[in-house]
Design a protein that fits this description.
mainly beta; Jelly Rolls; 8-stranded antiparallel sheet; about 5% helix; BG_Antigen-Binding_Lectin; signal; Galactose-bd-like_sf
Length: about 900
């Protein structure tokens, strides 16, 4: 009996161990599962040979020339938590292209297909005959269906396709924020001397403590990582002071989160010990402004040898499982049903703030004063997570509810990723304006560029007889893109949005379609339309979707020319805002004429330095009986790093003039230093010149537009570059709004004198203006020994509030051509676009067109006015003027009226062929 019991116990233990092994150790759950093709493929083999467990068989002989795209789906029959994928190449005769860039994807019972991994391309030669290629998922993911896809040139063949995993957990997901750090694995960065086990920091017991022993007189950095075992959406972290401790024992602890990809992001820092905010037994907590997804959490800081040991009772991290809801990929109203809060006390008359986002225009939110006094309000809408916002709509309440124009007047709308990073977005119209909102009207503002926001604030003032009343406040957006920015130059026009202007009939009977065929990456397709009698003006515009630093543009003619085809006479232009081609910067023009372009010829434009654009246009006029036909437009560049509300060097690449006769140590004189190197944005170059006999000379930079200058910088060279105090000594910096002689420009500041040591080597001399000042021209005047060479690495002119004025367009109205000379009796049109206006003053722009006779008396004048555009938007100005007999000079002046003052912003002068001074 004892022997039987012993055998039974042994068997039971083995069985229980076996069961545990099955439950805990991942196994090949693909073994024996069924594989089906997602299409019909030529020469296809036995697909299930890839899951038969035999590496001597192979499945899926798929191939063709050109490469054939294929997709195979495996049904695991139920959901498994997958941790590893393996693909086994066929035996020794296998070629590397069998497993060339094969992608494995997965999906559960419902949800979007997501990519898991991709094998190396064949030219990396990482997979050989019979070799096993494996990929460990950073975190186990639940899948029922696995998909294997790729493109095969000759014959895709795979000996085995394995998926290792365990049955998916049946534990309910963590939907309420709980302490997900409790009981998890904690690993210190080093072998610290401990006063108590660090594991006690996450044991859930505040009577225990964990900590690091102080080394008297020695300060050293410490760190520890808590693996949460899977990703959680963290909303709050807490540190609990032990009942024996004080704030000295929780000195400035930094809490950080680690994403699945390994990125470390700082979350918060506990108070320093001298703040007195933490006492024995208290809980210090920090609520994240927005929930963030983290796999691991880190605690780090400095253990002070002069203070005491580091110890505390507990670290907690509150979170939930990440949302499994499909991401919002299409632009939709992301504010509906979200919660808004209003600071302060107010009356709502039964119309609560949530009615502003209930999706019902028949209800409205109201905010009114508690007294008869005017008051200011601020409502904050929490979208609950970051969205890429592209449009905002505000709907006024209906007339039947007692609407007044001031209900939604001058309401300021701001947005931010966090509550302390709010930035202005737009303002609603003022009640006294003609375009004030009417009863039930919806006011729409489209952001010129999508911005990521979680919080949207609505603020304004309400007087004593009105209330704020809003039927609907709608924010339209989608989930922010997780694609990394383009770091290397690539074709950023590929499959981007193409639009057109003009009466164009795109041909479909010659394999040609609309403009999209010009950016589809396929030179076998092309865009074509025919010219009509008298010629067909056109504009074809690609929206790159963001700002890119463009390094090259290619325009490729279609390979086969039919009778009557013409691509020539095309002007390629670029701009940062969506304006007509005439207001864009013209880059180059493709020669005109039927014989000017060869079959498949590629026209290239390559600027000396990358230029920042969002829109690229092709414009021109296609003659009657001819055809515009283009195979491909390619724009090469990388994502522009557009700083927001930070110092921007607006001097880089702008025109430079200098003292006449200044001799440079350039290539002609055996060196490589030019005047343009002084502001080329590259500290590896420099402007090296020999002073004239006078010993005083200057460089002047035309910023081309007017900027609010906040700071100036001059970096000095180092000793190994031959540094001397004279390099940045005795330099005066000057500025002006007009192109004045340097002697008449306003002095901004001066560097230390050379005999006072100048500027230390390898440092950057910086001068911050006490208040931003508007300049267009910046000069540096240098005083030094007559024969001493000046070596200036770079001058940076920094601006926070950038106002750009687009290209002037002055044309003769009848012909529509650019006016190079003016003639009496003809009518001319002038226009200019205003972008990125960021000044705080309220103002209007006014453009004055005027004609003058030879004595300087005005013969005609015409004005145009536009309100200040919002930040980042475009406000075009245009006007027409007819010049009478006797006019010899034509001037277009842009002025800016603010604080009851007028200031010249920019002007263009055109002179007649005869009689001009």
């Amino acid at each position: 009996m004892k022997k039987f019991f012993s055998l039974f116990l042994t068997f039971a233990m083995m069985l229980s161990m076996s069961i545990l092994a099955v439950a805990e150790e991942p196994v090949n759950v693909a073994l024996g599962k069924n594989i089906t093709p997602d299409g019909e493929y030529t020469n296809a083999g036995a697909y299930n040979n890839m899951t038969d467990g035999d590496v001597n068989t192979m499945g899926a002989l798929i191939g063709g020339d050109p490469a054939v795209e294929f997709s195979l789906t495996m049904d695991l029959e139920k959901v498994y938590s997958i941790s590893r994928i393996e693909l086994v190449a066929r035996a020794g005769d296998s070629a590397a292209y069998d497993l060339d860039a094969v992608t494995v994807s997965g999906v559960t019972e419902a949800g979007a297909l997501e990519e898991i991994c991709t094998t190396p391309p064949r030219w990396e030669n990482k997979i050989t005959g019979g070799q096993v290629w494996g990929y460990d998922l950073p975190q186990t993911k639940n899948y029922r269906y696995l998909k294997l896809s790729g493109a095969s040139i000759a014959a895709f063949a795979c000996a085995e396709w394995r998926a290792f995993g365990t049955e998916a957990s049946t534990e309910p997901p963590v939907t309420e924020a709980t302490n997900v750090a409790q009981g998890k694995q904690l690993t210190p960065d080093a072998d610290y001397t401990l006063i108590d086990s660090l594991d006690k920091l996450i044991d859930g017991d505040i009577s225990t403590r964990g900590g690091i022993k102080q080394t008297p007189g020695v300060d050293y950095e410490y760190g520890m990582t808590i693996d949460l075992e899977k990703t959680y959406s963290i909303s709050r972290v807490e540190l609990v002071c032990h009942e024996w401790g004080t704030n000295w024992n929780m000195y400035a602890i930094t809490v950080s989160g680690v994403t699945e990809s390994g990125d470390v992001e700082e979350i918060c820092i506990s108070p320093a010990h001298w703040t007195g905010e933490i006492t024995a037994g208290t809980v210090w907590g920090f609520d994240l402004p927005a929930v963030k997804n983290y796999r691991k959490l880190r605690l780090s800081g400095v253990c002070l040898g002069a203070v005491s040991d580091l110890f505390f009772a507990e670290f907690r991290a509150f979170g939930t499982e990440p949302s499994t809801e499909p991401p919002v990929t299409e632009v939709t109203n992301v504010s509906q049903g979200k919660v808004a809060t209003v600071a302060g006390e107010y009356q709502n008359h039964g119309c609560t703030i949530d009615r502003m986002t209930d999706g019902d225009t028949n209800t409205f939110a109201a905010i009114a004063s508690l007294t008869a006094d005017p008051f200011e309000f601020n409502a904050v809408l929490d979208l609950e997570k970051l969205y890429s916002v592209s449009k905002i709509e505000v709907t006024a309440r209906a007339a039947a509810s007692g609407f007044a124009a001031s209900d939604l007047s001058n309401m300021a709308i701001s947005g931010g990723k966090t509550l302390d990073s709010m930035e202005p977005i737009c303002n609603t119209p003022g009640s006294w304006e003609v375009n004030a909102m009417k009863a039930g009207e919806t006011w729409t503002f489209e952001l010129p560029k999508e911005k990521n926001y979680q919080f949207i604030s609505i603020s304004g003032s309400v007087d004593d007889v009105y209330m704020f009343a809003c039927a609907e406040f709608s924010v339209f957006g989608k989930e922010p893109s997780t694609e990394p920015p383009i770091e290397e130059d690539s074709n950023v026009a590929l499959n981007k949005d193409m639009s057109w202007e003009g009466d164009l009939d795109f041909l479909s009977n010659l394999e040609a379609f609309g403009p999209a065929k010009m950016v589809d990456g396929d030179t076998a397709t092309f865009t074509a339309f025919g010219g009509k009698e008298g010629g067909t003006p056109y504009e074809l515009r690609v929206d790159l979707g963001d700002y890119y630093d463009v390094s090259k543009i290619e325009l490729e003619a279609r390979a086969k020319i039919d009778t009557g085809w013409e691509l020539g006479g095309v002007t390629i232009s670029g701009s940062t805002t969506k304006v007509p081609a005439a207001q864009m910067t013209a880059l180059t023009t493709v020669p005109g004429g039927i014989d000017a372009i060869e079959d498949g010829e590629i026209i290239q434009y390559t600027p000396e330095t990358p230029q920042r654009f969002r829109y690229i246009t092709l414009s021109g006029t296609t003659p009657g009986n001819y055809m515009f036909a283009c195979a491909e437009l390619r724009v090469f560049g990388k994502k522009a790093n557009v700083p927001e509300a930070t110092d921007v060097n607006i001097a880089a690449g702008k025109p430079v003039t200098y003292t006449e006769g200044l001799k440079f140590y350039n290539e002609e004189n055996g060196g490589g230093f030019e005047a343009k190197n002084i502001n080329d944005g590259n500290e590896a170059t420099a402007a090296l010149a020999f002073a004239p006999a006078s010993g005083t000379y200057f460089y002047k930079i035309d910023l081309l537009n007017f900027y609010d200058i906040s700071a100036l910088e001059l970096p000095s060279r180092t000793e190994v570059q031959g540094w001397s105090a004279y390099d940045l000594g005795n330099i005066t910096l000057l500025g002006s709004v007009a192109n004045l002689p340097v002697a008449q420009m306003e002095t901004i500041s001066a560097t230390p004198a050379a005999n006072e040591g100048g500027v230390p080597e390898g440092t950057t001399w910086r001068y911050e203006l006490p208040a931003a000042k508007k300049y267009r021209y910046i000069a540096i005047q240098i005083t030094g020994p007559a024969d001493y060479p000046s070596y200036i690495k770079e001058i940076r002119v920094l601006s926070k509030a950038e106002t750009d004025f687009g290209q002037w367009n002055i044309t003769e109205k009848e012909s529509g051509t650019t006016a190079e000379t003016i003639e009496a009796g003809k009518t001319y049109s002038a226009s200019v676009s205003i972008t990125n206006y960021a000044r705080l003053e309220t103002s209007d722009f006014v453009m004055i067109l005027a004609g003058y006779d030879a004595d300087g008396f005005m013969t005609a004048v015409r004005c145009a006015k536009t309100p200040v555009p919002d930040v980042g938007t475009s406000g075009p100005l245009s006007a027409e003027i007819t010049l009478p007999t006797g006019t010899v000079r034509f001037s277009a002046v842009l002025v800016d009226g603010f604080n009851n003052a007028m200031m010249v912003v920019d002007s263009k002068d055109l002179f007649a062929a005869e009689g001009a001074e």
